Amino acid sequence: MGSLIALGNKKALDLEDVPQLYKDDSVVGAFASLKERIESDGGSVSEVTAFKLAKALFFTAWKEILLTAFLALSYTAASYVGPYLIDSFVQCLSGQGDYRNQGYVLASVFLVGKIVECITQRQWFFKLQQIGMRMRAAVVAMIYNKGLSLSCQSKQGQTSGEIINIMTVDAERIGDFAWYMHDPWLVILQVSLALFILYRNLGLASIATLIATIVVMLLNFPLGRLQEGYQDKLMKSKDKRMKATSEILRNMRILKLQAWEMKFLSKIIELRKTEAGWLKRYVYSSALISFVFWGAPTFVSVITFGTCMLMGIPLESGKILSALATFRVLQEPIYNLPDTISMLVQMKVSVDRIVAFLRLDDLPDDVVKRLPREASDTAIEIVDGSFSWDSSSPNPTLRDVNLKVDRGMKVAVCGTVGSGKSSLLSCILGEVPKISGTIGLCGSRAYVSQSPWIQSGKIQDNILFGQEMDKEKYDRVLEACALKKDLELFSFGDQTGIGERGINLSGGQKQRIQIARALYQDADIYLFDDPFSAVDAHTGSHLFKEVLLGHLSSKTVVYVTHQVEFLPVADLILVLKDGRITQAGKYSDILNSGSDFMELVGAHKAALSAIDSKASESENGSTVSKENGDMSNSNGIEQKGQLVQEEEREKGRVGFSVYWQYLTTAYGGALAPLAVLAHSMFQILQIGSNYWMAWATPVSADEEPPVPPMTLIAVYVVLAVASSLCILGRSTILAAIAYKTATLLFNKMHMSIFRAPMSFFDSTPSGRILNRASTDQSAVDQQIPYQLGATAFSIIQLLGIIAVMSQVAWQQYYIPAARELSRLIGVCKAPVIQHFAETISGTSTIRSFDQQPRFKETSMKLTDAYSRPKFHTAGAMEWLCVRLDFFSSITFAFSLFFLISFPGIDPSLAGLAVTYGLNLNMIQAWVIWNICNLENKIISVERILQYISIPSEPPLVIEESKPDPSWPSHGEVVIDGLQVRYAPHLPLVLRGLTCTFEGGKKTGIVGRTGSGKSTLIQTLFRIVDPTAGRITIDGVDISSIGLHDLRSRLSIIPQDPTMFEGTVRSNLDPLEEYSDEQIWEALDKCQLGDEVRKKEKKLDSAVTENGENWSMGQRQLVCLGRVLLKKSKVLVLDEATASVDTATDNLIQQTLRQHFFDCTVITIAHRITSVLDSDMVLLLSHGLIEEYDTPARLLENKSSSFAQLVAEYSERSKEQY
Q1: What is the DSSP letter of 49?
Q2: How far apart are the first and last CA of the chain?
Q3: Is 485:509 a contact under the CB 8 Å cutoff?
Q4: Which runs of E-coded beta strand occur in 1061-1216?
Q5: Which one-letter DSSP state was computed for residue 546?
Q6: pLDDT tens column, 974-988
Q7: How does the protein's chain sit in the membrane according to the entry (predicted)?
Q8: Residues 302-318: pLDDT tens digits?
Q9: Average pLDDT over every residue of 537-546
Q10: What pTM does this model have?
Q11: Is residue 188 packed enough to be buried (19+ CB in 10 Å), middle (13-18) or exposed (0-12)?
């Protein structure tokens, strides 16, 4: 430890400076032995009970546990040497020693006792922390592995927020519990030793002491139970809040676009109110408990001395001092009892929660049979399969599925929205619970999901996905996925860091990276869930040719698609409707055999004929000049620096301002001095009462007492009662400060997060924000106020004894290292949480690639990185304490020799000094421990304050310039010289656009991926503010009005359809502005009315997290419903038709034409057909306007880029590959 602390004194420590862990302490060793234990105990992890888990945890570290038990035992024995010998010491000083030099012998015994006490205690504490760390790591690994194997059903019952809480909070609890492991039996031992000493001094009066002690301990149990209830409720309400927070952070962009963020903030504040209600009860019940404990020694001593009076046992100062010293030592076990009890309680709650999680159903391994390679040519075979996501619902998701796919076949799956296409692929992966039938697979598989799952990290790591790098193959894959060009645009190429969930990539890029990941795995069977819809027409056909027909020509491929032009190539087409395969066969066979397929194809044909008719109308038009923009950066967020920066941590001392802000948050800090005053009074009264007892009693039995016995006891009682009242006052004040401060900090932090600009969310992984909202907020709720209190009080106590000066030097030397270690703990915790959160959202992808072992390994590495600074913090603490303890023991011994060598000091006062001196090292260590711990914990406040000061967006409402209530009445959008960049150090994304979207006209915006289409829309909603130029709507400059005024008057159907947990009603109308009739009307218009009427709860039907229980297409329709309710004059469609089939697409277009005929509609489209019937087409290229005219005019000029795009699309559709 010495060298690490010395280094910490020279510079701020980084993770590299912290030594690696010994193999038994690292998670790999710990987890293996824990798992082995549980399995040898009979049964797998998912059958574990709370008792079995506790037993297994004990056996993973039983050697260390027994060693610490022995250390604790010797510590307890040594701590009673002092009280036992005080009486003889006083006698000896008053000249009644048993033999010569007895004083020196006693002093030496005192010293030896102290030193033993010091060494055993430090070793014992250190070993306990080590055990705790091991257990925590092993449990975290277990939870992580469980998260990987959960079935989808269990996952719906547990949202990711709850699961993450189990990993962060509950596993942490298990580690903390190790501290308290030996306390229950130590209490009994300590009490019995104390009684033995009292009996030797005071005879039968010690029986009274026993009774008093038991009464105090019993008082504790009802209080402990009360607190357990509160703790449990507190955790439950915290889960709810974390779940809501994580969902809101994920969908912040939508909330900002719809101007809903304040409504959702108030939801979180509501949830926090319930949580705070429990918190308040919890802190006040803690105050009561602490009153009982501080009052305990005084109460016990009053009873004991009273009994002596009544029984006529003579009180001599030596015996009284011995008794007082004993009560002091006794104070510790009694004082720790509530902690121990509440810790046992918390541990039990946590173990129960962890066990409940570990017992959830896993995905059954036997759903999919692996067929041997040699036996046949079959790649996939399903016989009479029925599958259901929800085993309780009467109608299964898929039924009567019979399917046989030979090796190397291409199978296309099509059907309308919600017909079960994605579920069919999930079945083949074995993700959907099977009701009946069999599935067989031959070979390895790769899967590309519909909504891309991208890990944060480098692009290259996402593509390799754990495989070795093979340059040639890697280049072929990039080529096939058309990623070469995109990578050239990133300044770091494939080493570019991707933000959380691929935030800095466009939808098409994410999809292509997913496809590249699948290709690189080189599997036998490929499952594609409509990956072509997120990319533009040109890229789509390129991907289809290169990937499906080129790269994968010899593999088995099953692809879901909405694009009819991809169907003719397939060897087998499956048409799904309502969970059944209604038609199957080749394109030409089924074209004539049934209606379902005809509908899909018919819709497509209609769209194509529209193109031909447009082209023929335009024979006499003007030509449009074509400018070529030079290549610029594609997607403004890739820059000369990475997007996601390292998490910031402050370096150096925690500023005084942090403490000051913390103290003055509640009631302007008025209560803090009161608490200190109350404690000082308590200390003075306590010393006074002990001094009174020592002075007012005779040294030996044959002297005359200075005051009559009744007066002696009466004064003592008065002093004792007064000191107890001071404690009650102090505890209550502390609780009030704690509660108020926690609430204020919470509200300020959340207000500032919700008002932060979008760029903050893009560059901050939600794990970091969640970490502030859970771990750091917990510390502020439950730990810091007590830590602050304890520090202040222990310092007062130390002053009440003596101030040992030179310890300050050690401490100054130690603190820099400890503080940085503690900050590292905070920074290393977020990656563990984030990795876990990512894993949970991508389980099906990870499982389909059979990559579970690799992810488990990564998680273990991250856990160890978190354990390292934690372990060394514990080491540093003990390093300091050992030095201090030795120092104070020597001071104490020195003063004893001094007392013996200079007779003539009043023996009873000398005795009193020794009584207090015995406690010196304990209190001094306690002070240091508290100061350091406080430094470590206050960092949570520092991290919260960091987030309170995020710069916020422009104001939501500007009173001076509120737009007219009817604005925008006409809907004319004028863009003038618009230039936009995402951050000051990034290149421009839009490089000077000027054009006008006329009111009530439909404008289509087209352009290749990365040409700035989405950026234009974001600027319209002021998610990013323009660098130069301006946008006006009906003559109002959008930069001059409040954000809410702007955003609530515009409508958007975003690219990723989002639904929130709640009901159908709350999803359509979160602000509760519309009546049920209006909502039903909107549902009917967007074709969801019947679907919702089918459900039993109608508008109150549940929507799970992220809307998982609705299909992609249905979610898209819900977004359409929101827009229909809002009826704005300006409507923006951001590729809204990307995840629906052509028939539904036509339906959406029709609805829009019908209900928005007089509105300005701006569409960003991938499907050329959706812009053909617009009034104007705007073609963007690299942030500049390349063409802006009516579609007919553009088509007529065969050399225009638009004409080329259309030609490409119709070519591709007519072409039979």
Answers
A1: -
A2: 70
A3: no
A4: 1062-1063, 1102-1103, 1130-1134, 1160-1164, 1176-1181, 1184-1189
A5: I
A6: 888 888 887 777 788
A7: Multi-pass membrane protein
A8: 787 788 777 777 777 77
A9: 78
A10: 0.69
A11: exposed
